[in-house]
Amino acid sequence: MITFSANLGFLWKDRRLPDAIHAAKDAGFDAVECHFPYEFAARDVSAALSETGLTMVSLNTWTGDGPNDFGLAAMPGRENEARGLIDQAVEYAAAINCPNVSVFAGRTSGTAEAEAVFRENLAYAAHAAQQGGQTILIEPLNTDVHDYHLVSADVAVETIKAVGETNVKVMVDCFHSSKMDGALVPVFERVLPHVGHIQISAFPDRGEPIDGDPAHGGIVYSELLPWLVEQGYDGLFGAEYNPTAGLEAGLGWLKDWRTHP
Q1: Which of 33, 115, 208, 240 is catalytic?
Q2: Domain boundaries, the chain
Q3: pLDDT digit string (tens) for 57-93?
Q4: What is the value of pTM for the model shown?
Q5: 4-259 — its CATH code?
Q6: Is there a contact between 108 and 82 (Cβ–Cβ < 8 Å)?
Q7: Contact indicator for 37, 92 with CB cutoff of 8 Å
Q8: Is 120 a catalytic residue?
Q9: With contact defined as beta carbons under 8 Å apart, do 104 and 70 qualify?
Q10: Max CA-CA distance within the chain?
């Protein structure tokens, strides 16, 4: 079965998070995910989830307070800060019954020292998440995010194997992975056993996740998503896209899946 979560960092971002949760429910999404919920009391977010019957499937660690911060987990010398952000995210996730916490690596020079720090902090995160039964996610981004430490799903799997904790997985964003790796099927053939969550949008414009022309790098979701389910992926597909013609007007893609899954 193909199910979708609305990424509320992209969709209904003009609304308070509890209100955005209700909007996602009204639009027909099966769940929600978000970036940074921390300005909202966990009890208010939990109440909205309870009222709608939706689950918040993932949230991110805060990126940090420095002007160039984009996560801290792989940054030598900032381990205490990174672990404080991990603790904050894991505690918030536990309070709203969110099963996944995505840990931002940060901008680094790509050194062995940075990778060692990343692995140590991921081991810390994995242990912190075990009590609440959560999974830690790491997401490769494309190189438009200048100097981001993790830009490859294959390298993410190497990191996961080195950490050696079963509750650390890779989150594959199809937009980022298409930009870095090209065709997605070979990528998933290599990394799918280590995938904890998948996000979708059009490529290369990051619009609604509708079929694109594969001859021009477009993603054919009507083929990719059923194939992933056939291969054993049983998670949600997170809709993380920029609406191109108004949010509600662009939800036809979701209605099409409901009519012709």
Answers
A1: 240
A2: 4-259
A3: 999 999 999 999 999 999 999 999 999 999 999 999 9
A4: 0.97
A5: 3.20.20.150
A6: no
A7: yes
A8: no
A9: yes
A10: 52
